[in-house]
DNA sequence: CTACGGCTTCCAACGATGGGAAAGTCAAGC
DNA sequence: GCTTGACTTTCCCATCGTTGGAAGCCGTAG
């Protein structure tokens, strides 16, 4: 099997297959005399495993651990479960952060007339929470953007 | 005010201030004879506006639009609200995707004994849904990783 | 004068992926 | 045997927002 065949069968692009090989996530494929990578069914299974784990949002690091456990006959399922639990916790953390943003935005949007008038609580809030609070004491800010807004962007993006 | 001062007052790193200037998000600062950027209170306000919008997860593109509206006295609040609504929809889409991953993982983790035994539904699922279904018909897979698993990773990360 | 901290620009890296160019390879059809 | 087209190879670049570092200039306190 050439790389294009494995790609079709595994759902992983040829670009990514070469990348995974390059970073050592999968072993270097054997080559034909002409330099073409050659694969067997085993490799398709491995790439499908990778794709499914990525679809579930596992990081490359977690994926590396999962693959090691996958190929370890004497693994303890507790180790797998621990990784899954850690990932679940991380996902839930992100969900909560996104939810906090959504809640704050929804709150602001509800108070915006959304008409031809330039008056807009959303912009007022972005311009400065303190001044806004002085003028619109009823508009309490939520977590995001508070006194110590903690740059979370990177973690979320 | 030098760039360090605005950075402290606005909460935006000097690196990012220069970057925002470079990509045209903010106008180029005036310079001293020695080439130092000089700022006024106005600039601090603008950077705080940017930081708050980023904290709420707005993209740079949306941010550009918001800043244009912010400085437009004749804006219609409807335009601002529309951007906010679009962003809310995007946030909710991401939340749903993360939630789907979480649900699928929780389901798998629940069925994993998490002991010293190598038997593990999580790994079996990653290894191949079809074979797993044949052996564990009660373990139905969720959305992520199904027949057409659609690469969503990029959108979420 | 010296030392230190702030400022400047430029370059690189991150993580995972896609795009594309230039060149070599293979197989089918003529 | 030759052409053609699909496939493969490596290499470089771009994304997106942000951080880090290096080399060198500036400003001020001691």
UniProtKB/TrEMBL annotation, chains A, B:
Q: Does the keyword DNA-binding apply?
A: yes
SMART domains found in the cross-reference section = HTH_MERR
Give the transmembrane ranges: none
**Superkingdom of this entry's organism?**
Bacteria
The UniProt entry, under Pfam families, shows: MerR (PF00376), MerR-DNA-bind (PF09278)
* Entries under Gene3D superfamilies matching the protein: 1.10.1660.10
PROSITE patterns recorded: HTH_MERR_1 (PS00552), HTH_MERR_2 (PS50937)
Which positions fall inside the HTH merR-type domain?
1-69
Task: Please provide the record's keywords in A-Z order.
Answer: Coiled coil, Cytoplasm, DNA-binding, Transcription, Transcription regulation
Q: Where in the cell is it found?
A: Cytoplasm
What positions belong to coiled-coil segments? 81-108
Q: What is this protein called?
A: Cu(I)-responsive transcriptional regulator
